[in-house]
Design a protein that fits this description.
Helix content: over 70%
Radius of gyration: 18 Å
Number of helices: 10
Distance between the termini: 44 Å
Number of strands: 0
Shape: globular
Order of helices and strands: HHHHHHHHHH
Strand content: under 5%
C-alpha cells in the first residue's frame, strides 16, 4: 500500500502539473502562448502553488503520510487526490486569459481559493467528513469528498477564467459564474449528514454511498460548465 499510495499520488501530482502547463500553452495570454519560457515560469509557479496548498490539507484532517501511508486508508487517498486536482483547476483557471500583469493571476487564483477553502471548511464543520474518513476509515466518504472537491474546483476555476478587466469585474464574474459552487457545497453538506457512517450503519457500501454521490456532484459541475460555454477570450 505504501508504494502504491505514493505512486498514485505521484501520478496525480505529475498529471496536475502537466495540466497546468498544457492549459497555459493552449489557453494562456497570447504572449505566454508564444513564449515557452513564460509557460515554464508559470508552470513552476504552479508547482509552488500546489506545494503550498497541499500543506493545508492536514488542517482539514487529511495527511498523505499519517492517513494513507501509515494507516493504509484508501478513503484518505481519494480525498487527497480530489483536493490536489481541485487546487490545480483553481490555478489553471486563474492563469488563463489576457491580462496586463501576473498580479491579475494572483488575484484571480486567490479569489477562487478563498471560495474553495471556505466551502471545504463548511463541509468539514458540519459534515465532519474527515472524521468519517480518518477515524471510521470509510472509503465511501473518501469518494464523496473526491467528487465534492473536484466539482468545486471545476466551477470555481471556470469562474475566474478569462480576460482581465478590473478587480471589481473579476469579483462580479466570480459570483455570477461561481455561485453554483455554493449550492453544490451546501447540497453535499446535507448529503454528508445522511450518508456518513453511524451506529446503525458503520460500513456504508461505497458504490451507492460513495461513487454515486461523487458522480452526481461532478455531473452538476459539468452541466454548469457546459451551460457557461467558452470563457471570454478563449482561443479558438
Amino acid at each position: 500500500m505504501n508504494v502504491t499510495a505514493y505512486l498514485v499520488y505521484g501520478i496525480c501530482s505529475i498529471g496536475s502539473l502537466s495540466f497546468i502547463a498544457t492549459a497555459l500553452h493552449f489557453w494562456g495570454a497570447a504572449e505566454i502562448r508564444k513564449d515557452a519560457g513564460e509557460v515554464i515560469f508559470l508552470s513552476i509557479a504552479g508547482a509552488a502553488w500546489l506545494f503550498l496548498t497541499t500543506k493545508l490539507f492536514p488542517w482539514f484532517g487529511l495527511s498523505l503520510r499519517d492517513d494513507v501511508v501509515e494507516r493504509k486508508n484508501i478513503g484518505a487517498l481519494f480525498g487527497l487526490c480530489g483536493a490536489l486536482i481541485a487546487v490545480t483547476l483553481l490555478y489553471a483557471g486563474g492563469s488563463i486569459g489576457e491580462g496586463p500583469s501576473y498580479l491579475n493571476n494572483v488575484f484571480s487564483v486567490g479569489l477562487a481559493a478563498i471560495g474553495f477553502f471556505a466551502l471545504w471548511i463548511l463541509l468539514e464543520c458540519i459534515g465532519k467528513v474527515s472524521i468519517s474518513i480518518t477515524e471510521e476509515r470509510d472509503a465511501a466518504s473518501g469518494l464523496r469528498l473526491f467528487g465534492i472537491l473536484l466539482a468545486l474546483g471545476l466551477v470555481l476555476g471556470r469562474a475566474v477564467a478569462g480576460d482581465w478587466h478590473s478587480s471589481s469585474a473579476t469579483v462580479h464574474d466570480f459570483i455570477h459564474d461561481g455561485w453554483p459552487a455554493a449550492v453544490i457545497g451546501l447540497l453535499a453538506t446535507c448529503i454528508e449528514l445522511f450518508a456518513r457512517p453511524n451506529r446503525e450503519h458503520p460500513f456504508r457500501p461505497w458504490p451507492i454511498f460513495g461513487l454515486v454521490p461523487a458522480v452526481f456532484y461532478i455531473a452538476l459541475a459539468t452541466l454548469w460548465l457546459r451551460h457557461l460555454g467558452a470563457w471570454e477570450g478563449m482561443p479558438q
